[in-house]
Amino acid sequence: MKKIISVKPLDDYNLLLIFSNNEKRIKDMKPYLNKGVFKKLKNKTFFNSVHISFDTISWNDEIDICADTLYQTSTPLNQ
Description:
This protein is 13% helix and 38% strand. The chain is mostly beta strands. It has one domain (4-76): 2-Layer Sandwich (NE0471 N-terminal domain-like). It is globular.
């Protein structure tokens, strides 16, 4: 399992994720914004509060997403 070692909120509800293998990936969170607890992420201040928690990401310890899911559903960052 790859762990997330860094997360940075970007414009347009995207996240820059860096995994334990040093791979950088972009996760588009827009598809989640109208679903269940993820609706809270529409608030940009709340969205920008994303942080590392137990090798993955979370928002105020209320919302989290499995690191494996984030890896599988994100796009490699072309550098």
